[in-house]
Amino acid sequence: MANPMYRQIAEDLRAQIEGGDLEPGQQLRTEIELRDHYGASRNTIRDATKLLAAWGMVETRPGQGTFVVRKIEPYVTTLTGSPKVPILYGEVDDSAAGATGSERILYSTDPQVEIQKAGASVGKLLEIAEGSQVISRHQKRAIDGTPWSMQTSFYPMGFILKGADRLIQADDIAIGTMKYLEQTLGLKQVGYRDWITVRTADGTEASFFNLPPDGRVSVFEVFRTAYDQTGTPMRLTVTVYPTDRNEFIVNVGDVPDDGAGVVPA
Amino acid sequence: MANPMYRQIAEDLRAQIEGGDLEPGQQLRTEIELRDHYGASRNTIRDATKLLAAWGMVETRPGQGTFVVRKIEPYVTTLTGSPKVPILYGEVDDSAAGATGSERILYSTDPQVEIQKAGASVGKLLEIAEGSQVISRHQKRAIDGTPWSMQTSFYPMGFILKGADRLIQADDIAIGTMKYLEQTLGLKQVGYRDWITVRTADGTEASFFNLPPDGRVSVFEVFRTAYDQTGTPMRLTVTVYPTDRNEFIVNVGDVPDDGAGVVPA
DNA sequence: GGGTATTTGTCCGTATGTATT
DNA sequence: AAATACATACGGACAAATACC
């Protein structure tokens, strides 16, 4: 057995997909048909399609069939700079997919505000004691109806006592929380540090992002620590992005403008 | 069947691992023992351990058993700034693992130089015609014996004709290729753009990085386009990093020094 | 080196459950 | 309700990798 049969079958199907014989969205032959075609058992065919699914090339739908995955058009976030996509607030509604032409609109839920105790990561990055209280503001975001990111911002509890009480209200701060903190507390953001990791999605994330339950699609977890003029962390924002639909850009020094076309299609 | 049995078994084992009953590196009971313990068939046990493997919690070794994975201590790369780890050149040697104390030494192979035709990505990012010739310099890197990254730099073919002929020699350019290009061609790097994506590893990558063959561990693919003083791309560097042992930092504006401790352990 | 025991990997056939059309 | 297609679960047989004697 140079290569096991299920792997050979998977490679054969992969070649068909990459060669264009099977187009994105198209249905593969059923397991029974493939079993007869390759002269293998149905379980072996299933091992092959499982491998293809692990490679992210097909997805299986009970009662329907096995389909070649359509690549999701990635959304590119520039970490060095301000976001340029307009943000609309309100409920994230998955059913409103395939909306208006080619414009991409970012929807965001209203913030869900909680008082929590700082875990290890939050304490370390905000430079406060683990277990001390923090304000957390959580939002879910979608682009054109596709769930895109889950974001949680953490602020030290002291900000409330010092007068920034809008932080614990569950609505959006239209002028931006950074400007609000500057007006109320005199804290000005002078820089931030992003720490980028990748891990497997947990159950909540897999559910919100409609990820396959086999743990195949992982997520970016980006920790953004914002620093004030004294070099003290004033906010920690943790954002989770599925890796199958998100990419990042970092610009350093003097580079040509971003624009359509910096990234190959 | 609220939850399928193999999933319940997987959750039970997961709880044991997260609860500390099973420690990293420790061997699980054999499939036969687990079969008797849970009153399931061996195939069902195998489905459960496959799920745990997809979650990245265990790994199976033929002829040995199933083991709780040890988390690899991640190596953090700062994208905005110069690398600080000393680079030693020579052969990457997997067998020299577990070396000298806590210092981390980055080994790099000598460059493997080829003349290639630019693919779609390379052409687009270097702003040259797809199919035109480019110089590629490929290196593999390891830290403390663990394979860490695969890097390929692409330069326009014209650089050779204009006098930068050391680019096609298969040895390291000690002063750095950027300084070399400045001395020979007068091209000075004024900035760069990093484009960060995540995808599943291909066969070559899975082999070099010792990744499990099930497609679970994905890789970062970072495209760094360097621009000269005229705003023209002068180099494209594509680096592939396994996501299970690599993290990235991006600093923007005025932030406190990097150092041990910016990242939670 | 060879032989054996142990453990996971591959492959088969079958039966039944669940989701979708 | 019926048909279709994938999902779960079982039991068995043999292969391949590893460790140990």
Q: What would your notes on this structure say?
A:
- The structure is a homodimer of 265-residue chains.
- By secondary structure, chain A is of the alpha+beta class.
- Chain A folds into two domains: 5-68, Arc Repressor Mutant, subunit A (Orthogonal Bundle); 75-255, Chorismate lyase-like (Chorismate lyase, 3-Layer(aba) Sandwich).
- Chain A is built from seven helices and twelve strands.
- Chain A has helices spanning 5-18, 31-38, 42-54, 120-126, 158-161, 177-185, 203-208, and strands at 58-61, 65-68, 75-78, 87-89, 106-108, 112-117, 133-143, 146-156, 189-200, 218-228, 233-242, 246-253.
- In chain A, helix 1 crosses helix 3 and helix 2 packs across helix 3.
- The model of chain A is unreliable at 93-102 and 260-265 (pLDDT under 50).
- The interface between A and B is large, with 47 and 46 residues.
